Amino acid sequence: MKRLAHFDSRGSFRMADIGGKRITLRKAVAAATVRMSREAIETLRSGRIIKGDAFAAARLAGIQAAKRTSEWIPLCHPIPVQWIDVDCRLVARKPEVEITATAAARWSTGVEMEALTAVAAAALTLYDMCKSIDRGILVKDLRLLSKSGGRSGTWKRETKL
Amino acid sequence: MKRLAHFDSRGSFRMADIGGKRITLRKAVAAATVRMSREAIETLRSGRIIKGDAFAAARLAGIQAAKRTSEWIPLCHPIPVQWIDVDCRLVARKPEVEITATAAARWSTGVEMEALTAVAAAALTLYDMCKSIDRGILVKDLRLLSKSGGRSGTWKRETKL
Amino acid sequence: MKRLAHFDSRGSFRMADIGGKRITLRKAVAAATVRMSREAIETLRSGRIIKGDAFAAARLAGIQAAKRTSEWIPLCHPIPVQWIDVDCRLVARKPEVEITATAAARWSTGVEMEALTAVAAAALTLYDMCKSIDRGILVKDLRLLSKSGGRSGTWKRETKL
Amino acid sequence: MKRLAHFDSRGSFRMADIGGKRITLRKAVAAATVRMSREAIETLRSGRIIKGDAFAAARLAGIQAAKRTSEWIPLCHPIPVQWIDVDCRLVARKPEVEITATAAARWSTGVEMEALTAVAAAALTLYDMCKSIDRGILVKDLRLLSKSGGRSGTWKRETKL
Amino acid sequence: MKRLAHFDSRGSFRMADIGGKRITLRKAVAAATVRMSREAIETLRSGRIIKGDAFAAARLAGIQAAKRTSEWIPLCHPIPVQWIDVDCRLVARKPEVEITATAAARWSTGVEMEALTAVAAAALTLYDMCKSIDRGILVKDLRLLSKSGGRSGTWKRETKL
Amino acid sequence: MKRLAHFDSRGSFRMADIGGKRITLRKAVAAATVRMSREAIETLRSGRIIKGDAFAAARLAGIQAAKRTSEWIPLCHPIPVQWIDVDCRLVARKPEVEITATAAARWSTGVEMEALTAVAAAALTLYDMCKSIDRGILVKDLRLLSKSGGRSGTWKRETKL
């Protein structure tokens, strides 16, 4: 039966004690797809919004939020991350932006939440910048793609969504 | 042609000046669906994790993150919110938790980002607590459901996803 | 029966909706007594620690924490305070420092938590600075002394501790 | 004569340089007693407030505040804590809640302030949730119970309060 | 004799009570000059660093820091700013970047510190991005250019530096 | 050609991956000169403002801001600093205060930004406290004085300003 690190024997939440875990290189990659209206995506593509500038803001928002993941997510440990990378790219032939984030730290617990938080903040920043054109923008499928390091080793998302 | 509040005439991002906007009651409702494995949802349902306790943590995370939306989303204004409400419920016959958040403020700009941020933080908190059972948990369809108040008036999501 | 602003009809916590409350001047005063060993208090009195400097640090810590009360206390609303005042004074003939804090805001909810948070942060800052002399320092009787403004009007602590 | 880590030779406060201290496992336990009116404690006991829900909010507040201790207490170092645990329990035959917190980190300075900050935030969160019933709630005896690790070794509070 | 808002009659610092001040539109403009080596400025000009991208990061840093001015500057009040604008431009014929920031709020105290904080954070962000080329980069003359609103009215910097 | 740690091969900003860098003792010293009017400096000197108290506030602001440098400066890594020291002193025969800050950490990246951020926050805190006497106060020459540790070794500012 799987261990429930965040719950005690009575089923109440708790912060996991990571004192006994080994310090190793941990990595995680997460992603989400931001689907917007044709009008919104054309505004990004056509240059009325400088795409590079919009993506720069989203990427920076992701980096900054990820560094403070333990403030967003109450049971997360503060982790001195060594790298956060956020990438935004227009999807060909679809009114979508794909956001991917990588987090890395040499620490005694994983950085999955850091990668997911980076993607969430970047996606919501894009939403914020484009919402006057399309309030219906959808952040689809915020998800972990892979993680490595630590006792549970490497995990990769198997199924296509 | 729609106004692009967050971009100047050259297409560079900027913070919108909300000085000329009227102070009125602004509300927004957002939602997301957290889909997990049968095993994970059964753990929540069966009591190995106290569902109330897990949902309490997710709800509190949403409230706390929403109050600080302008720290996560770079072009958002600080807004002294008057209410943040986060609700989590198990979806019947599906391995899913539906998270809804409402934000309200009497202010000169809308609270869509506050509602969306509350949902994102609550969803990722659930992910964090259940990830030792299922790393593949998916945060599906983070989206605005409705907003009211301000010059653009009331907006409701029309189409089913 | 008294209203439980922070709990819904089922007894679950919630953030109170302060939208219907009137904006009036709210004030609150809180206090605590920091009791330390004779050795510790003599170090403060005798000048091996510059009392003014130690009290300046404690006062500033109280002011800064109080401005961010809604980050410490999850169900508190962000309140743009107009004044936080923190006072520290040596108690005559006792090895004690009395800390008092006043908070004020023209807002739709009270500032009791701001005053209490200021006192707590100032007291713990004193503890931190003196703990190498006395780890047994006690923060006694952190309490509200009075509050005014709002629907419930003026309240004063009646009984001596 | 005891070393005053937080003051220089002239008596001005300073941040201690922990560069020369050894990285070892540091633990600390702190506590406080929250005394409230009979009416308030009965509301918690009887279920008009869901005790588990109220305690969950207080516990989470303590965990979150402790992770950021160096933001509240100016001369504290940022410490990547490995564990924060907060416990709330009703005291038999007294209108009191006892709050205990444990902090742990493998670091070059102690975690006393983290444990004390967790207790303070949890106690004030309880105050906040119950203050509409009883504004006179008292946070009694916020104190360190024990600490271990580091050059000064193990310390335990000797005297009963 | 000028009033010293931040000091009491004994000369100790205090937070000013802004309760009696009128809510009016407050604006402030601040600036600094970032002087770097020829090599560093050429790297920005020539495109090895995408200038727009570097300036986007600096501008966003300024906006984000300014929203939280009261966290960095201890005696500042939290102010719900309505606008922060940061501009970076290469100075003709000099190895310099001129940074200007404007802050605006309808509030009962001025926004000078918000404008100055925005400039400081933007300038240090530029330093950070270019420091591997030139550690000697100088942030010259961080200063207020003008402020308007409030009892003291309009102020403009008179002398050329 | 010098490495541009904060930009990728296309010239877009990125966070540097410090995973491959060695953990060594890193130190940095930064400074700035705060020039104010004769009237302002005399107020500090004459005791109408308690100089020690004003400098205590500025020093504490610098320490607190430096601990959170990665929140100010978007591409900075969170660094668990071991020491931040801030010094303020009146300059003889000039209406100036010289602020110096030292930062130290045993970490895989340098602490230049921590030292610079400490100086910036301390200088702006002095500005804030004295601005009712002189809005024209100038923060001159915010600069790095030296740094040591890490692959690039020791650097000292060579030229007088």
Which features does this protein show?
homohexamer, 161 residues, five-stranded antiparallel beta sheet, 4 helices, 5 strands, 28% strand
Alpha-carbon Rg of chain A, integer: 17 Å
Unreliable sequence segments of chain A: none
State mean pLDDT of chain A (0 to 100 scale): 94
Distance between the termini of chain A: 26 Å
- Could you estimate the helical fraction of the residues of chain A in percent? 25-40%
Assembly of the depicted chains:
homohexamer
**Helix/strand structural class of chain A:** alpha+beta
Total helices of chain A: the number is 4
Got a strand count of chain A?
5
Name the helix and strand elements of chain A from N-terminus to C-terminus, one letter apiece: EHHHEEHEE
Strand arrangement, largest sheet of chain A?
A: 2-3-1-4-5
Shape assignment of chain A = elongated
| Beta content of chain A | 25-35%
Greatest interface (CB-CB under 8 A), with counts per chain: A-B, 63 and 63 residues
Biggest sheet layout of chain A: 5 strands, antiparallel
